[in-house]
Design a protein that fits this description.
The chain has 317 residues and is α/β, with parallel strands linked by helices. The protein has ten helices and 13 strands. The strands form four sheets. It has a five-stranded mixed beta sheet with strand order 1-7-6-4-5, sandwiched between helices. Strands 8-13-12-11 form a four-stranded mixed beta sheet, with helices on both faces. The longest helix is centred in the C-terminal third of the chain and has 23 residues. The radius of gyration is 19 Å and the shape is globular. The chain starts with a strand and ends with a strand. Bound molecules: coenzyme A.
């Protein structure tokens, strides 16, 4: 299959919001958040635009790839909501990088990065691209209700990016969708149409946590089992599983069912919370930057979220 990672980068806002600081604005405490989610702190935007964060991640990935912006022939951005509805965040990144290639956004909620990789693969397979920048950038802080303790403690802001080129390192990929707005929903603008007679929902994230938890564990297990089968690899061949960072209990529960050793599991949910589609490439960027991943390592990426969507893939670094 036709894809290879040339470089990765990540970024987050400067402000670190700890659980104890959060407990000053909503009725919660460090012990509840830590034991139920594994989250200790998250990065929250104070004066950074999403474009600012996405650009830092993109520039890092470009630098690590050794490519120049004129080498790019596509930019795919995954985000639930960019700074603007239009232009797309990808178009703003293209402008800031000084690139001239096509650019578009995809929204598959927390699975957006895996969907973007799947699209990139199709462009390579069709012979339409040589080098693609994928940027997953999310500002969950503007989408959550800061008075709802059952959701506002879970999320954070950040961006991760990779530059991919044609290659044979993608061993298997799978994406799924099971349309369902009952378990996880963020409503869109209804505007000020004076003739509108329908509902005017609030614009915040609503979630049925327990049901989403079950969906997440099942999806992560099924998707990873499927991509392993497609690739002909066994769980013992995997150097690191890089799962969507929503909740340490989801990750550990799936890891137990899959028979993963602790050293095979990558985790940073304690420092970031859930950054939606940015979470997998942020963690990938951290592992590549620290030298923890080496050429030839086999990594499994897995994500799940709103939609409901899920996906996984296997890549040789
Ligand atoms: C949200 C989640 C952490 C809640 O954990 P849980 O064990 O299911 O907790 P519950 O919802 O049963 O709540 C238990 C109690 O804690 C309370 N509670 C909820 N949030 C709280 C908070 N931040 N601080 C303190 N107490 C809280 C609830 O009110 C409830 O109290 P009650 O028993 O008196 O009614 C968990 O369901 C989860 O992670 N779900 C998946 C979410 C997810 O990953 N979403 C994104 C997918 S991309």
């Amino acid at each position: 299959m036709s894809l290879k990672i040339l470089g990765a980068g990540m970024a987050h806002p400067g402000f670190v919001l700890s659980n104890s600081a959060l407990s000053e604005i909503v009725e919660t405490d460090d012990q509840w958040i830590t034991t139920r989610t594994g989250i200790k702190s998250r990065f929250i935007s104070t004066n950074e635009s999403l474009l600012d964060i996405a650009m830092t991640a993109s520039k890092n990935a470009m630098q690590n790839s050794g490519l120049k912006s004129e080498d790019l022939d596509l930019i795919i951005c995954s985000t639930i909501q960019g700074d603007n509805i239009t232009p797309a965040l990808s178009c703003e990144i293209q402008h800031e990088l000084g690139a001239s290639c096509p650019a578009f956004d995809v929204n598959a909620a927390c699975t957006g990065f895996i969907y973007a990789l799947d699209i990139a693969k199709s462009y390579f397979d069709a012979g339409r691209s040589k080098n693609i920048l994928i940027v997953s950038a999310e500002q969950m802080s503007k989408l959550i209700n800061w008075q709802d303790r059952s959701t506002c403690v879970l999320f954070g802001d950040g961006a991760g990016a990779v530059v991919v080129t044609k290659g044979s390192n993608l061993k298997a990929i799978k994406v799924t969708a099971k349309g369902n707005s009952d378990l996880l929903e963020i409503s869109g603008l209804t505007g000020n149409n004076p003739y509108w007679e329908g509902e005017k929902p609030d614009l915040f994230l609503h979630m049925k946590g327990k049901e989403v938890f079950k969906f997440a564990v099942n999806s992560m297990c099924n998707d990873i089992i499927d991509v392993l089968a497609e690739s002909g690899l066994g769980i013992e061949d995997v150097t690191k599983v890089i799962p969507h960072q929503a909740n340490i209990r989801i990750i550990r529960s799936a890891a137990d069912k899959l028979g993963l050793r602790d050293d095979q599991l990558a985790v940073n949910v304690d420092r970031y919370g859930n950054t939606s589609s940015a979470s997998v490439p942020i963690l990938l960027g951290e592992l590549m930057e620290s030298g923890e991943l080496k050429e030839g390592d086999i990594i499994v990426l897995s994500a799940f979220g709103g939609g409901l969507t899920s996906g996984a893939c296997i890549i040789e670094v």
